[in-house]
Amino acid sequence: MQSTRRNLPQLLGEARRWFEEGLSAAMEAAGAAPVSATQAQLFAVLDDQGTTVSELARRMSVTRQTAHQAVHGLVAAGLLEQVPHPASARQRLIRRTQEGERVHRHAGVILERLEEQLADRIGREAVDALRATLETSWGRPPAPGPL
User: Fold this and answer.
1) 3-state secondary structure at position 79
2) pTM (2 decimals)?
3) Where residue 30 sits, what CATH number does that domain have?
4) Most exposed: 14, 55, 109, 135, by fewest CB within 10 Å?
5) Where does residue 62 rank: exposed (0-12), middle (13-18), buried (19+ CB within 10 A)?
6) 39 vs 122, which has greater pLDDT?
């Protein structure tokens, strides 16, 4: 008989989707242009001073091509811009436009509200414990060993 117990990565993925869907619905209700989950993730890992496409791809665990496509969609929407990299003539930095900064701040407020709604549903103590657990360093993943 197969176990119906979901593993921790599945549960974390479902929790992430809960926030992504709530954020997307709230942004759309506020009149913001729809963005894909990949584009929203890109916004979350983008440094304030700008980040290269290669670094974005690494942080998102996607191919460089996938990150590049997400960047181009957000540039076309007026939320991101590409600027010369100060240390490399061959690279460009991706950073938020003024409108992108406004949208990013608005998304942060929505995420705070979603966290409060979650606390109303499962309890403030549970949300605080979850946050404390996830903020704790887990160290490097263990080296593969015998199964």
Assistant:
1) coil
2) 0.82
3) 1.10.10.10
4) 135
5) middle
6) 122
